[in-house]
Hints:
Blueprint: H1 34-49
Amino acid sequence: MSSHRDVDHALAYPEPPASPLWHRSGPKARPITPGRQQHNCEVLLRAQYTPRPRSPRTAKAPTEAR
């Protein structure tokens, strides 16, 4: 009988170093104002609960290639 241990093999190797492309160089983003945060929240809630308009279907069937 083999002695199989419960080992996660994905954790057996160290994580590779982060790519230099992941680090931002340049000015930091401005913090969001409470007014803008409230506006974004309202827009998000409205977008989540407003049904999207359905595209109208054409009544004609596509013509078959002859």
